[in-house]
Amino acid sequence: MNSAPSALTMLLSRYTTRRDFLVLFGGAAALWPRPIAAQQPERMRRIGVLMALAADDAVAPRFVAAFEQGLRELGWVNGANLRIDYRWGAGDTDRFRKYAEELVALGPDVILATAGSIVGALQQVSRTVPIVFVTTIDPVGGGWVASLARPGGNATGFSAWDFSLNGKLLELLKLIAPAVTRVAVIRDPSVPAGAGGFAAIQTVAPSFGVEIAPVGVHAEEIEGAIAQVVRPPNGGLIVVGPPSSLFGRVDLIVNLAARDRLPAIYPIRRFVSAGGLMSYGPDTADQFRRAAGYVDRILKGEKPADLPVQQPTTFELVVNLKAAKALGLTIPPSILARATEVIE
Known about the structure:
Layout: H1 7-13, H2 18-31, E1 45-51, H3 60-73, E2 82-88, H4 93-105, E3 110-113, H5 116-125, E4 131-136, E5 155-159, H6 166-176, E6 182-186, H7 192-204, E7 211-215, H8 219-228, E8 235-239, H9 250-259, E9 264-266, H10 269-273, E10 278-282, H11 284-299, E11 315-320, H12 321-327, H13 333-338, E12 341-343
Parallel strand pairs: 1-2, 1-3, 3-4, 4-5, 6-7, 6-8, 8-9, 9-10, 11-12
Antiparallel strand pairs: 10-11
Helix pairs in contact: 3-11, 4-5, 6-7, 8-9
């Protein structure tokens, strides 16, 4: 007994030519579900980091950890979907230029710069590779950006200091050492930040009854000023940024201040960790964490030109009680209450 013709046989019987069959088959095939294409893995993104510090600097791991932690929280993991190339400038402008060329040649998606002079070195090599900077003083005056609100070029980031805050350094110095009447201000005169920092202190000095003297960053200038310009019991010392100009002078300055029993205040905790009396300035590790957010936005397609430069939001006051005792100073309770960290 013959079986009934199938539905497909009946349908095909209506199409007698090969051309008709191909048209039918092609139309039916278009309706069949297609296999899902295998997803291509996201390409490894690349970040360059040019540090102003030396690789063996005691504070370097803290900043690297803050930056990489910020990236992890945003889904970027070094060695997984991200490669980070570090270079260490050790405060040497020649190294900044050399490593700027090396990092740009690697074709990074973005570069993290940790000083204004590093931004300048990178922009001399490329005006297209995106740059996010931290711990950079006066990025407008330095020419790294057109304005804080609209950077306009290939760089943006986090400004390290408002010049007016340098006056706070003198205020704090007078609070812990009221007898001070003459202060040497160590600054880098070759950069706008150094000149601006000194000018801010010069503006407020008369209100504190203090005479100030500018001092350059070269070792012989520092030694000469401490030996001749400021002497105890009424001499004092202030160091203003940019810190990268002074990385190679930290121990020298701290040791000279201790030798001559000079109350001194510094812009970053590194001086206090080396035995200095007190520091006040923006929380640098916080800037590295926040920089990870800008790196993330650039990796996702935003332009540095459209990301406003941000000012510091957190500050740290670090006091070294051991150094104070050696100088015969008593730190006021009001200072201790405000201190972020007290080193005993």
